[in-house]
Write the structure tokens for this entry.
Amino acid sequence: MDNLTVLGTGVLGSQIIFQAAYRGKIVTAYDLDDEILARLPARWDYLRGRYLADLPDVTAESLDAAVARIRTSSDLTSALRDADLVIEAVPEVLEIKRETWAKVGAAAPQRTIFATNSSTLLPSDIADATGRPEKFLALHFANEIWRNNTGEVMGHAGTSPDAFEAVAAFAEEIGMVAIRLKKEQPGYILNSLLVPLLNAAAQLYVRGVADPETVDLTWRRATGAPVGPFQIFDIIGMETPYNLGIHSDDPEMRRFAEILKRDFIDQGRLGIGVGKGFYDWS
């Protein structure tokens, strides 16, 4: 699958676009309007710097070639025209994802395979909205995918084995370690382990038990982990934990989401991608 369309150009969507293009894929980046897409060159410049700093064999020429393989579109039909694979990275809200996939299913070529990068929703929550559930599954990436290069492949009961293996092969082609899940699991493997840690940190913060720096210091020193949970929030970016928290049944997680909105998102402190979140990364 050489032609990829990515729906959504936020923190993780832009990483998927850049990584796939870096590994030789032709990528169409789709988002809702041209104003959003006009900000992508700055994102590519940021990722260039990260690739050069973090990966030993990267050259400026290879990064230039990656950017040249990316086109942008705010027209969904045009964006899907040549797609062998569509990866969706839109906000983590079930209604938004189902509405998006209904439009994609009506417009994409019949050969196209569909994958969601949803962090928490199951493929079976969304599959019927596509109109071709047998070609729908999840391909979940860890943040900073050029370094944390796992691709969790998770189908639902109706996913065809051919589609499952095609997506696993694609993940390997773009430099991921393909993690094949044998059955549906909310949060996959990674987030089944990570989300309880982040939720516990958020609750400590909301309850006033400790500030983010103290929570992170405790986790790093006691476990040997390279980063603490609030550093991880900055890496993820504020929008995904906000969307998850504001729809939570837990009042403390809704309170945490309100804090993220007021003190971080509304102040432009979106995380490491813009240089500020819980920490100043500049």
Residues 198 and 232 are 8 Å apart (CA to CA).
